[in-house]
Design brief:
mainly alpha, two-stranded antiparallel ribbon, two-stranded antiparallel sheet, 4 strands, globular
Length: 288
């Protein structure tokens, strides 16, 4: 697959803006990080809802059910953040809001089931795990998962791991595209015909090596942990990309959205993160 320079320039320009926005949200403050992930959360849900309606014609996309699920997921993100405002802990607000929204999801899900929209509740529950659960893992990792209890939320340990995960995703995605475009010959999967074994392998190797070198330079954690994070992101990133490609094939669309020229929509841009974040979070909790 030859490198298309016009496509590459479009992707590079969009990626530059995307990286700047992500870094601004990540590094400015915990609040900007949460606001950034709020936008990502609802953007992914809107596109997921649109895909579900194309895949399952009886999916009640314009009813209360998916919107209650979005609300439940967002309140769970609030709970995961550990933020406070005016001396009030938002975790308790998030917990209460999440329970109320889940009750609405259950009620509207039962109504949908009674109308023989049998697969609706399953798609909504999966969306909660796939989108809200994954993004909540990143929020928890940024806010509470890696910051010592006695340190403020702007402690470097708070953003080192999320930043490492983002860098790993960018390196894996970019290098897989470049290596695949230059020397890719062997198709990786019929689900994503443009993906090659050469590009996938090259992206994964460069991802692990880059994250290991940066992690060693930062020095906050063991080199073995950075290598593990890089490997988790490389493997799960490919799985997430293939999964979202499968959803789009089932829905009969090329992109999940069009908000980012050359990259598609929110799901197209964050499909790798949605698979990588929970596994990275689990590794941090169990091994670090």
């Amino acid at each position: 697959m030859a490198l298309n320079m016009a496509t590459f320039r479009t992707r590079a320009a969009t990626a530059g803006v995307f990286v700047a926005v992500m870094l601004l949200g990540l590094l400015t403050s915990p609040w900007t990080f949460f606001l950034l992930f709020t936008v990502i959360h609802f953007g992914c849900w809107v596109e997921y809802n649109r895909l579900a309606r194309k895949i399952v014609p009886t999916f009640p996309g314009n009813t209360l059910l998916p919107y209650a699920a979005m609300g439940a997921g967002w309140f769970f993100m609030i709970y995961s953040s550990g933020l406070s405002f005016g001396g009030i802990s938002l975790s308790s607000v998030g917990r209460a809001g999440c329970l109320v929204m889940l009750a609405i999801v259950l009620l509207t899900g039962i109504i949908a089931f009674s109308r023989k929209q049998n697969r609706s509740l399953g798609w909504v529950v999966f969306g909660l795990l796939y989108i809200s659960g994954s993004l909540s893992a990143m929020v928890e990792l940024r806010m509470r998962g890696s910051v010592p209890a006695a340190e403020p939320l702007f402690h470097p340990a708070g953003y080192a791991l999320p930043l490492g995960i983002f860098i790993a995703l960018w390196i894996n995605d970019t290098m897989a595209y470049l290596v695949g475009s230059l020397i890719g010959r062997t198709p990786f999967s019929p689900i994503s015909p443009k993906k090659t074994w050469e590009g996938t392998g090259g992206g994964a190797i460069l991802c692990v090596v880059t994250v290991a070198l940066l992690g060693h330079w930062v020095g906050l954690y063991r080199l073995a942990d950075w290598i593990a994070i890089g490997a988790i992101v490389a493997i799960c990133g490919v799985a997430g990309d293939l999964f979202e490609s499968k959803l789009k094939r089932m829905a009969g669309v090329k992109d999940s959205g069009s908000i980012m020229p050359g990259h598609g929509g929110f799901l197209d841009r964050f499909d790798s993160l949605l698979f990588a974040a929970p596994l990275a979070w689990l590794y941090v909790k169990l091994m670090m």
